[in-house]
Structures are given as structure tokens and as C-alpha cells.
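Researcher: Last one for today. Full complex below.
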Amino acid sequence: MELRLFIDFEGIDKSGKATQASLLRDWLIGRGFKVEVISFPDYTTEIGLEIKAFLSGLKQYSPEVRQLLYAANRWERKSLIESWLMDGKIVIADRYTPSGLAYGYANGLPLEWMICIERGLPQPDVVIVLDISPETSLKRSKGRVDRYESDLKFLENVRSSYKSLAEKFGWYIIDGERAPSEVFNDVINIISKYLSITR
Ligand code: TMP
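Model: Here's the assembly. Have a good evening.
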């Protein structure tokens, strides 16, 4: 069966992206699909290390430079993702271009410019935004903060960016405040449509 499926989980920090990505991977593998999971930022690359440096406050960059580094980090992984898709694997991303757009938009960067630097990258077929409040995000991070998590107002802006971009680009939004199993039911309902299989 010819299948090209690239799924991306999105949302503000601690919205449950990694949990849902892992549940979905296991669910798909259990149904005989070959699956790869990738997370962005990918901190293992040269540019990923640079991203780590500014997120931990070791380096300072303007919003534009940070945006370019996040995008370049995706370009570093372009051929890997393409090779997986060519092999008929389902690719699940924990953050991808939509994170760039939502966080960049909240930083006041122009949408057309951000889209431009992502053009040519493999784009997801399905984007699922796990929607939680900034308060839930901070509560779930239990004191672990990075530069964004420390800023409730910023997270609120990112959340509304996700909402308006979801409407513009046809991304799904799911209530991420619920238990992981309930959230996952919604995820399966969405993904099943793309797989044309019944549960
Ligand atoms: P992480 O906590 O999921 O590893 O992501 C680190 C931070 O980077 C998170 O606050 C979201 C932000 N980010 C962007 O601003 N743009 C991007 O393109 C990506 C992938 C992440």
C-alpha cells in the first residue's frame, strides 16, 4: 500500500506532545506500520547545540537569528525525513515548522518571511495542536523553566498564534487539558481518517 504520512504534534510547552507521539507510534506499530519519531529542536546537531545555548541563556540572539536557527535545524534533517517517507514509513514529529510559525508569530516576526525560510522542507500532512492553558504548562513543568516557560504572557501569545494559524492552515486543535488516554482517543479519530482503517 502506497502511503505518505507525516504527522506533527504541536502545542505550547508541556502540552503532551511527546506522550501522544509515543502513544501513536506504539498504536501504529501494533497495526503493522513502520514508524519514525523525530523531535525538534533536534539538539544533537551543530545548530541544535547553538539552540540549546540560547535556550539556556548562554548566548543571546535576536528573534530573527533564533528563527533562522530553528529553521536551519529542520533543514539539517530534511534528507533524513525524506528518506523515511520514501521508505514508506510514517513520520511523527514532536514540533516542526508550525512551532516555528507559532512562536515566531508571537515574537512579532512576519509570517511571509517565516514561511519563505521553511519552503522546500517536507511538510506535514496532519498537524495536531494540543491546546492547554499557560497555567497548566507551568504547573506541569514543576519548576523546570526555559526562557519561554518563565513567561506566562508569551505562552498566552503562542497559544493564540496556534489558534489563528490553525484556522488559516487547517491544523487540528485538541483539548490537551484532559487525561492522556482521552486526548489519544481524539488523536486516533483524526489519524484513522488518514489511514482509511477502522479501529
Ligand atoms: P522544546 O522544549 O520542545 O525542546 O522546545 C524548546 C523551545 O523552542 C520551546 O519553547 C519552543 C521553541 N521553538 C521555537 O520557538 N521555534 C521552533 O521552530 C521550535 C522547533 C521550537
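Residues 13, 40-41, 55, 70, 95, 99-100, 103, 146, 148 surround thymidine-5'-phosphate (CB under 6 Å). The CA atoms of residues 84 and 91 lie 7 Å apart.
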